[in-house]
Design the sequence.
């Protein structure tokens, strides 16, 4: 009986010790890092990252650089702080060529402390860092809330190891005393018997399972509204893999708008009919999905003719990519002038059975590429004369988009 008690105490003790350790870790922070993370993502993330310079400096470690009062004053109104003659504020402003950070008068001191707490603690679990580019299609869901899950997993493994060690110790004792030894399996079943008899152990186990389930539900909710990877069901099972991949149809045969204008059009059903007047069955769905094209344009399969006086019903494709109105993006600028492949931004579309959003489409994503991409000056009349001057000015052969003004707010926001 004593040994059972000991074991049970250890179990409870460990469980709570671990939560105390975590609580203490966070108690040293100036605020609530989880709230800080939300505020950061909503208000600061367009210009700052923790570990990387973007429009503004990396904010990881900012608490070592300045006092909390300074950070609060800066964030609430950086222009006012500069006007007061603060040397640090003027220095950082000049270092960033006078780029304007907006004032955040609505953030309270506690809000900013929470944000700072987040810059200290960082993300609980780092997402696997690829090549440093943002365009990797890592599903953004949940990632850093994984800690609890790891705690539970770690504890479970620890418990199993503990049972094994106890069994070993018990056996060794038996060997010393010259008694017959038992196997781990027998000991494990002893443990279950103890557990079944001891309701407190069951209660704890229930809590562990409940926490785990809640965690799963929470993850599910967190992924609502995360648009990267957004893959809605479409009214017709149209496959890019089949059309652009297997049958090698050029992207711009259907999306002809991309070359000329701001928007890349979605083709109308009558364009589909260029081929589907003849191709009346598909390899996967037979007549079923192609019949939906016919229903849209009013084509009769039996007579091979359009129905007279039929009112065309446009196919209601669900839009996948959608920038907010405040941002201006032009396909022609990138596809035509920039010579950028569709796949650079949209990923391996020719392999997608169902199309999904590959890139995050955040401001940071646009900016990062503008910092790194060279302007294709050779094949572009417009830049020919500017070209020499820029090379001289920046003393380099590599002219990147930021040098032609690609980081100016007004280029993307009017
Ligand atoms: C629209 C872009 C933008 C947003 C949004 C933004 N910042 Fe900034 N931030 C900057 C720029 C640019 C600088 C560099 C200084 C300058 O040019 O004014 C900067 C500098 C800073 C600095 C000084 C860092 C250092 O290392 O010297 C802090 C602290 C800071 N920002 C905090 C925040 C916080 C907190 C938020 C969110 C509440 C935020 N910023 C939102 C653009 C932004
Ligand atoms: C046969 C015509 C056709 C071809 C060829 C084609 N597409 Fe599409 N594309 C469509 C249709 C129809 C949709 C809307 C349905 C969907 O999202 O799957 C679409 C949707 C898209 C979308 C998502 C639009 C949104 O809602 O945000 C992108 C991005 C895209 N195509 C890129 C490409 C690229 C890149 C290629 C070449 C590799 C390509 N497409 C080739 C017909 C085509
Ligand atoms: C340039 C020719 C061309 C155009 C334009 C075209 N398709 Fe297709 N489509 C094909 C080919 C080729 C197949 C495959 C036929 C096969 O393998 O038997 C196909 C097959 C299909 C299938 C059957 C899939 C299956 O596995 O059963 C559907 C559905 C389909 N297309 C929808 C569309 C839609 C919607 C459009 C217009 C947005 C469109 N297609 C435009 C050439 C085209
Ligand atoms: C530099 C990155 C980039 C490149 C290159 C690019 N796109 Fe896009 N694409 C975007 C962005 C950003 C959006 C969202 C635009 C919006 O919501 O206004 C988008 C949206 C779309 C859409 C939805 C309709 C629209 O215009 O909003 C289609 C279709 C599309 N792209 C197809 C293509 C095709 C086909 C190519 C190659 C010919 C291509 N894209 C090249 C970034 C790119
Ligand atoms: C894959 C790299 C890449 C991405 C991602 C990208 N761009 Fe660009 N962008 C370029 C290149 C290259 C040019 C220069 C094109 C040229 O030669 O005119 C450019 C030019 C521009 C220009 C014109 C700049 C000027 O000074 O004339 C605007 C505006 C622009 N991009 C907006 C955006 C927006 C908004 C986004 C995000 C939604 C975005 N870009 C994402 C590569 C990119
Ligand atoms: C290369 C294009 C580009 C440049 C340059 C750019 N932005 Fe943006 N900005 C965007 C895009 C795209 C979005 C929308 C991002 C999203 O929806 O996640 C955006 C969003 C924003 C937002 C709204 C954030 C929100 O949560 O709604 C603000 C504020 C902003 N930008 C300010 C600025 C300021 C200030 C500058 C100049 C320092 C600037 N931007 C430069 C592309 C750009």
Sequence:
């Amino acid at each position: 009986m004593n040994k059972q008690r000991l074991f049970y105490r250890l179990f409870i003790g460990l469980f709570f010790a671990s939560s105390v350790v975590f609580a203490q870790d966070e108690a040293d922070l100036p605020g609530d890092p989880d709230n800080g993370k939300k505020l950061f993502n909503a208000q600061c993330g367009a210009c700052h990252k923790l570990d990387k310079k973007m429009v503004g400096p990396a904010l990881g470690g900012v608490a070592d650089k300045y006092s909390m009062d300074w950070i609060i004053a800066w964030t609430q109104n950086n222009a006012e702080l500069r006007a007061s003659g603060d040397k640090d504020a003027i220095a950082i402003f000049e270092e960033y060529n006078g780029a304007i950070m907006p004032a955040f008068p609505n953030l309270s001191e506690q809000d900013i402390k929470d944000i700072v707490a987040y810059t200290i603690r960082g993300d609980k679990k780092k997402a696997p860092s690829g090549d440093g580019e943002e365009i990797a299609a890592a599903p953004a869901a949940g990632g850093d809330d994984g800690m609890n899950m790891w705690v539970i997993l770690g504890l479970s493994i620890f418990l199993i190891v503990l049972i094994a060690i106890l069994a070993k110790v018990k056996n060794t004792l038996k060997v010393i005393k010259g008694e017959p030894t038992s196997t781990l399996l027998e000991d494990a079943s002893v443990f279950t018997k103890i557990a079944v008899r001891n309701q407190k152990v069951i209660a704890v186990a229930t809590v562990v399972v409940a926490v785990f389930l809640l965690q799963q539900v929470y993850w599910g909710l967190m992924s609502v509204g995360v648009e990267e990877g957004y893959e809605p069901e479409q009214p017709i099972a149209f496959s890019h893999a089949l059309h652009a991949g297997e049958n090698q149809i050029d992207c711009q045969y259907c999306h002809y708008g991309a070359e000329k204008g701001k928007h890349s059009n979605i083709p109308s059903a009558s364009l589909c009919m260029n081929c589907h007047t003849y191709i009346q069955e598909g390899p996967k769905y037979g007549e079923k999905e192609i019949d939906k094209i016919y229903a849209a344009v009013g084509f009769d399969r039996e007579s091979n003719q359009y129905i007279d006086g039929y009112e065309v019903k446009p196919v209601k494709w669900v839009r996948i990519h959608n920038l907010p109105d405040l941002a201006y993006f032009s396909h022609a600028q990138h596809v035509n002038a920039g010579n950028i492949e569709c796949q650079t931004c949209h990923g391996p579309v020719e392999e997608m059975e169902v199309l999904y959003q590959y890139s995050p489409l955040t401001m940071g994503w646009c900016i990062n590429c503008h910092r790194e991409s060279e302007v294709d000056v050779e094949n572009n009349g417009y830049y020919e004369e500017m070209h020499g001057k820029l090379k001289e000015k920046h003393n380099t052969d590599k002219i990147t988009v930021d040098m032609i003004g690609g980081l100016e707010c007004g280029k993307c926001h009017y």
About this structure: Residues 323, 327, 329, 333-334, 337-338, 340, 344-345, 361, 365-366, 369-370, 373, 375-376, 380, 401, 404-406, 411-412 surround heme C (ligand 5) (CB under 6 Å).
